[in-house]
Structure prediction request, 500 residues.
Amino acid sequence: MIGRLSRGIGPGLLIAAGLPPWGWWPLSLIGLALWYRRIADQAAPVRFRTSLLIGLGWSAPSTVWMADFSLPGWPAVVLIFSCGAGLVGLLTPRTGRWARRVAFPAAIIVIELIRWNYPFGGTPIASYAMIGVATPWAQAARLFGSPFLSGLVVLAGVGLAELRDRRLKPTLGILATLVAATLAGHAAMGSTTVVSTREVAVVQGGGPQNTRAEICENRNVFERHMATARTIDRPVDLVLWPEDVVHPAAPSIATPSNCNDELLRAEEASQRLTALAAELDAVVISGWFARTDDNNANRNYIVAQSPDGRVTDLYDKVQLVPFGEFVPLRSLIERFSDLIPSRDVRPGTASAVLDTDLGPLGAVISWEVFFDHRARDAIGNGGQLLLNPTNGSSYWLTVVQTQQVASSRLRAIETGRWVLQAAPTGFSAVIDPDGTVQQRTGVSESAVLFATVELRTGRTPAVIYGAWPALIGSLLTLLAIWGPATVQRRSRSTGKPVRR
Prediction:
C-alpha cells in the first residue's frame, strides 16, 4: 500500500517542484516521464488510480496557500485537480506507442482548459504552462498561448521517457518539435511594432504580509503608497499603483473609536491623487475598492488620471475570484467559513483597455492575469502595454504571488507586450515581451521600480487565435485514437460487423 502511494505521489511531487516558487523545471519533466511510463500497459482502473495519486502529489503543495484562505476549500480543490489527472490517465491508451505519445499531452491540454474555465469561472493556477515559462521553449506560447506551451512541456516529458527506453527516433522527433515551435515563437514577435517608449514608475508601498482587510488600516495602506510615490525623483510618464490600495469608507460610516486616524474618504483620496499627477506631470493609475452607488455590492476598479486633473477612463474588474470576490453557493459556504466577503463584487462589462494621455493601455486586475483570454481582450482591443495592478497582501507564503509573476510572464510572451505588475507588499515586477523579469521587488518592502518600456501595436497569433488551435487539435487527436476503439467495442458487444 505504502509502495503504491509513493509510486503515485512521488512523480506528482517532482512535477510540483517545477512550479513557482520552486521553479526546478527539469524535475517536472522527470515527473511527467515517470507518470507516462507508470500508466503504460495498465488497465483503465489502474491508470486512473495512479494518475489520481500523481495529481494529488502535484496539486497539494502547489495550492497549499489556499489552506489559509479556506481550510475546507483547499482539499476540495486538490480533489478536483487530482480527479482531472485521473481522467488524463483514462484518456491515455494502455498500448500503442504513437497513440500514447500524442494522447498524453492532448489529454492534459483538454483537462487543463476545462479547469481553467469551469466551474465558477475556472482556476488557472499551478498550471503546466507556469512550468513551461522557465523552459528554453517558452517563446512558443506566442503561437497558440498557454495551452500549447503546456502541451510542449508534457511532450518534453514524453521525450525523456522515450530516451530512457532508448527509442532514438521518437526522441529526436520530439526534440525537433520543441526546436521548431521555439523558433516559430521567436519569429511571431515580428507581428508587433514599437510605436514609442515611455518612462514608468511602479509603486509598492510595503507593509506586512498575510493581513486581512480592516477599516482602520485602509488609510495606512493609502499613506504608505502616497509616501513611496513621493520618493519618485526623476521624470516619468506613467505611475502605476496596486489594486485596492485606495479603499475609501462610505460617507455613512463614522470613524470607529479604535482608529488612530480619520477614515479615508473618496474625495480626499481623489484630490491627493490629482495633486500627485500634477506634481509628477504623469499619468497616475490607481486601484480603488468601493461600494456601488446602490450600496448592494462592491466595485474593484482602476482609475486613469491625467496631469491636468482629468479622469480619462476607468476599468472595472471582469474576472472575479470565486469565494473571494463573489461567493457561489453562499448559504452553504457560510456554514464552513467566516472569511468570505459580506457582499459580492459587481463585475465590469467593458473591454480591458484604459484610454489615457499616453494612448490605450491594456488592463488586467490581479486574478485576471491568470486568464489568457483577459489579456487577449486587452491587447486585441488596442492595448499597447499590459498593466496588472494586484493585491496579494492577505495571502499566506509566497506561492500564489510567484505563480502570478509566472502568469504575467506568460501574458507578456503571448501578447508581445511589456507587463507592469504592481502589488502593495510584493511582488511588483517589470517584465519584457520575451517574458524576462527585468526587475522585481521583495516582500513587504517599500520601493519604486523605474523602467523604460515600449508601447507596441500588432497582434500575435496567440492574441488572434487564443486557445482554439490547441483545444481543437487535442480533441481531434483523442477522437482519432479513441473513436475507432469505441466503434470496435460496440461491434463486439452487439455481434454486428463494423460498416466501412
